[in-house]
Amino acid sequence: MSDIIQLLPDAVANQIAAGEVVQRPASVVKELVENALDAGATDITINIKNAGKTLIQIVDNGCGMSETDARMAFERHATSKIRKATDLFNIKTMGFRGEALASIAAIARVELKTKVYEAEMGTQININASKVEMQEAVLCDNGTQFLIKDLFYNIPARRKFLKKDTTEFKHIIDEVQRIAIVHTDIAFKLIHNNQEIYNLPKSNSQQRLKNIFGKNISKELVPVFSDSPLIKITGFIGKPEASKKRSGQQFFFVNARFMRHPYFFRTVMNAYKDILSAETYPSFFIKLEVDPDSIDINIHPTKTEIKFENEHALAQIIGATVKEAIGKFNFSSSMNFEGDDLPMGGAIPVSDEIQMPSIHVDPEYNPFKQKSTVNYAQKSYDKKQDNQTNEWMNLMQSFEQQEPEQQEILKRTSEISEDAKVMQLSLKYIVTPTERGLIVIHQRRAHHRILYEQYLKNFQEQKAPAQHLVFPINKQISEEYALMLKEVLEELSMLGFILEINGQDLSINALPIDVKESQAIETMDSIIQNFEQFNTNIEFERQKYVAKMLSFKASVGYRTLENKEMQQIARDLFLTTEPGYCPRGKRIFTMIGINEFENRLKI
Ligand code: ADP
Ligand code: MG
Fold this sequence. Notes:
The structure is a single chain. The chain contains 18 helices and 22 strands. The strands form five sheets. Strands 5-4-3-6-2-1-7-8 form an eight-stranded mixed sheet. The protein has a five-stranded mixed sheet with strand order 9-10-13-11-12, sandwiched between helices. A four-stranded antiparallel sheet has the order 16-17-18-22. The chain has helices at about 10-20, 25-40, 65-70, 100-105, 155-160, 165-180, 205-215, 260-270, 310-330, 375-400, 405-415, 445-460, 480-485, 490-495, 520-535, 540-555, 565-575, 595-600; strands at about 45-50, 55-60, 110-115, 120-130, 130-140, 145-150, 185-190, 195-200, 220-225, 230-240, 250-255, 255-260, 285-290, 295, 305-310, 425, 430-435, 435-440, 465-475, 500, 505-510, 590-595. Magnesium ion binds near residues 34, 35, 95 and 100.
């Protein structure tokens, strides 16, 4: 029998590899833009037709390629970014496998024009399905320009598999966002069917987010920052009240690379747990910087899943940093950082536009003279890190400038005395004067916050006070309901609901102290309903959930309050851990500063 094993021709091998690297037009955009970044470009234009199905054009002003390199670039495992196996552990560039161009060239018509700065002429190469059709010297701009036409034209099965244009273009937008959010010192343009989608000039992080997501986003965010030997964290997180019904604006980056990380995601969600309603998700843009040796970016071919050493410790730091930011800017976030609409009448200096930090200039550094893209890429990476640290220092400072005054206000408010002057407004608000203005407290939310923390404490100490009923409440319930009740019997008893269930007979023998008999069934219902809801949601601890529900039910509604009650609520509120927000994530109080009155009464 003759031998049957053969080596695959390169073109076929490349097509197979392309299956990994290029799933859709967005993958091409990602790979080519990352290459442009690695080439040290400061200006990248992405021009798309028909969601990338017919045309993807990427133009950069990076270092360009020599004639030989331009040809080599399309070979499989051709890369200028690593030379030996040990380099793998010190990767600072986005790409390093040398697979992207070979893969893309295997499944599309590719036209490359590129020129290094020192050369007079550039090189053009046309490749169709891995076959070089043409290579010649051309006049062109410095940098590199890729045209990718008719993606998957030679693999009809893959082409058919593509989704409709809106979906495919959404993927492209996602990829561009993931890159543009972190690479703020690079200008990006995204054009689709001749329409400009993004025009992002070089800017600071805040401005970049505004340019991508719209002006309003900066009102919804506060900065996060922490710097420890293990990890540096910078970025923005959403204010609780700005959280959205749908997840979507959640971004993690590690060493300037977008990543997914379900564990860290949960960590961030948990940091919001007490102040967010269960059905909403906060936005976040969190950038992690760790020692490149401590991560493995290699576990997934498209490289968005990343493995960390010390995952546990890192999660703790991330959680603490996010919590700290929420706490720190909790009160201040009742103010609008845009400068208008300030409850304090503009008394507090605010700055929205952060000055670009002074740039540390390296006199040796001349990108146009660098021969090796490796050096260039690494240098630009290090320089970027410096800039970002500066930027964040400035940013945190500008937010913190507001802090001393606010801390002072908070201190004063926490000293609301037993006989503080209080009055009620529209059966809904408690108004109390302080030296700096009026504090207006939403009575129900405040009471909800106070009770919630009490209940949680009771839970933890396992001593929810119950009132035993002389005459138990009896009720016929459905089988389904009985089943649901049984599932949460333990939590309910911890709360003070002592129940007995026999088949379809329910008897309530004791109630939590704050729940009236007439409210018993309704309260239990809503607890159970919400159990169901949150079971389909992110992992909120049951105890907290029950405490949240129960305290809501027990909190004062819109009714007349005695002076004593109002004083009590005002005082207790500022003894809680989160006086700013009720457990459902709504704001509890606001201040109207003296300045505000003065402004209004000027004439
Ligand atoms: P990798 O990025 O993993 O090295 P690619 O196949 O994406 O592999 O690219 C191969 C090589 O082509 C790169 O290492 C780089 O030297 C060169 N190259 C690709 N795109 C560009 C570009 N836009 N500017 C300059 N060089 C580029
Ligand atoms: Mg690459």
